[in-house]
Amino acid sequence: MTQDRAIADTVIAIIAEQAVRDPAQIAPADSLQELGIDSMGVVECIFAIEETFDVTVPFNANNPEAGSFDISTVGSVIAEVEKLVAEQRS
Amino acid sequence: MTRRVVITGAGTVNPLGHDVPQTWAAMRAGRCAIGPLEGLRDLERLSVRIGAQVTGFDPAAHFPRQILPLLDRATQFALVAAREAMAQAGFAPEGEAQTRAGVIMGTAGGGNTTVDDAYRTVYEAGRDRVHPFTVPRLMHNAAASQIAMAFGLRGPGLTVSTACASSNHAMALAVQMIRGGAADVIVTGGAEAMLCFGGLKAWEGLRVMSTDGCRPFCRTRNGLVQGEGAAVLVFEAEDHASARGAEALAEVAGVGMSSDAGDIVAPTRDGPVRAMRAALADAGLAPEAIGYVNAHGTGTRSNDVTEAEALHEALGAHAARVPVSSSKSMHGHLIGATGAVELLACLLALREGVIAPTVNLVEPDPACAIDPVAGTALRADVQAALSNAFAFGGLNAVLALRRA
Q: What is the pLDDT of residue A67?
């Protein structure tokens, strides 16, 4: 549980940096779009996630909706990263 | 009276062929040169492992041992293409005539492979020296300078670097330089060779590359596929060409350039529209006169939709009728050289009445309301053609060609 909290906090910190906001202002229900993160910002977030967690995120900017990685909200990104980290540990 | 500019020679080395006849044959047949990348160092560390490579190209067969260490792969392609173009033009200036002939080449990556190799040497291998010719190989003007030296072109010489529009901008400047009186002949086009580990890694980062193919205007498209190669054209003042009895392959009737001044990667509709309109106006052509458009057509989600919309805005109702194809589906995206290779597709249409197809298009995207010439080449009587190039950074260059 502490482990997962750490993942969530790190993902929020990454997103907060892109959104130029305080992490405390970021809620799981927020969409990346609402936070003012454009497509280039999304690509940078994913890069930061890959580098931080040493995972590979399946994401193609040409059709974000077609990938298996759900980037619709902060919460969905956290859930996806948790999955990837769990897969990596198993 | 403005001088008219014609093309008197064409040459190429690209994934479809090592000369213009081979390239035209491949375009007629709708042959796709995109496949698994081979022979790259650290290939297994790439997540994108397809591309359109120039295969069967032996540098030692084209260049002596003393010259070869000075030539990056991109420059090798450029020089071989220039030889073919100059031979066709039958142009070998001497004396003062050399000062009236110049060269303007386009490239986005310059000697990218040379940079990659040099960085490996100092960073990865930890060596303290690189090859002594690293700088003359990697500089963006290497191809322009080598062409000038090879053919005695002592007039204006320069390189233009505007990402995916580099060679179209180079050719547009060549037209204006001839019209402006700075030269009678400009050898122009583009060269690119970025299919190396570092070059591909940089593109992977943007997440716009397809891992399974280039399908412009297709609903299933998922990105661009990189190619490599060069094409070189001899642009010449019409009066100069006719005085020496050179055959005009086509007229470069108009050029149009614009900046989106919008987003560093996402295209706008306005910029391409203005570039197309400017090219038509410069050529004195009505939209209805255009019989073929070689699209920028990268196969990315946003380019193809935006380009189709821009075509409707620039050409009006004619946009729904005129054949529009992306030859990138066959030769890949040659980045800074792509406009020059795509000009060959326009020459094929104007001279042979054959419109190169958009191959691998399985399901036309209803969001792209154009005729994409899917699958197989089309026979058509083409009197004039447009060739589009819209770069990252929002820099656009369009050429309008007319049958000579």
A: 67
Q: Using an 8 Å CB-CB cutoff, list chain A residues near B205.
A: 43, 47
Does residue B323 contact residue B377 with C-beta atoms inside 8 Å? no
In terms of Cα–Cα distance, which of B1, B6, B10 is closest to B242?
B6
pLDDT at A61: 80
Query: Which chain A positions have a beta carbon within 8 Å of B223's beta carbon?
Result: 60, 62
What is the domain extent for residue B366? 255-402
Side-chain half-sphere exposure of B271, counting CA atoms within 13 A: 25
Q: What is the pLDDT of residue B1?
A: 64
Task: Judge: A62–B265 Cβ closer than 8 Å, yes or no.
Answer: no
Domain membership of residue B111 (yes or no) is yes
Q: Which residues of chain B have pLDDT under 70?
A: 1
What is the per-residue pLDDT for A68? 78
Q: Is B250 part of any domain?
A: no
What is the mean pLDDT of each successive set of 10 residues along chain A, which is 90 residues long? Answer: 80 95 95 91 92 90 76 94 91
CB pair distance less than 8 Å for A62 and B205: no
Domain boundary among B196, B211, B243: B243
Q: Which of B207, B265, B306 to mutate to test binding with chain A, by most A CBs within 10 Å of its CB?
A: B207
CA distance A62 to chain B (A): 5
Catalytic (active site) residue B32 = no
B174 and B219 housed in the same domain:
yes
Of the residues B190, B221, B243, which one is the last residue of a structural domain?
Answer: B243
Contacts of residues B147-151 at CB distance under 8 Å and 24 or more positions apart, as own/partner, are B147/B78, B147/B79, B147/B82, B147/B103, B147/B105, B147/B187, B147/B232, B148/B102, B148/B103, B150/B79, B150/B82, B150/B83, B151/B82, B151/B86, B151/B91, B151/B92, B151/B93, B151/B101, B151/B187
Q: How far is B363 from chain A (nearest CA, A)?
A: 16
> Do both B190 and B230 map to the same domain?
yes
Question: Of B207, B221, B264, which is closest to A61 when you measure between CB atoms?
Answer: B207
> Do residues B77 and B122 both lie within one domain?
yes
Domain containing residue B379: CATH number: 3.40.47.10
- Residues in chain A within 8 Å Cβ distance of B265: 39-40
Query: How many CB pairs (< 8 A) connect A and B?
Result: 32
Number of domains composing chain B: 2
Supply the ipTM of this predicted assembly: 0.72
Residue B248 belongs to a domain: no
B368 catalytic, yes or no? no
CA angle in degrees (0–180, nearest 5) for B215-B221-B225:
60
What chain A holds in terms of domains, given with CATH numbers, is: 2-89 (1.10.1200.10)
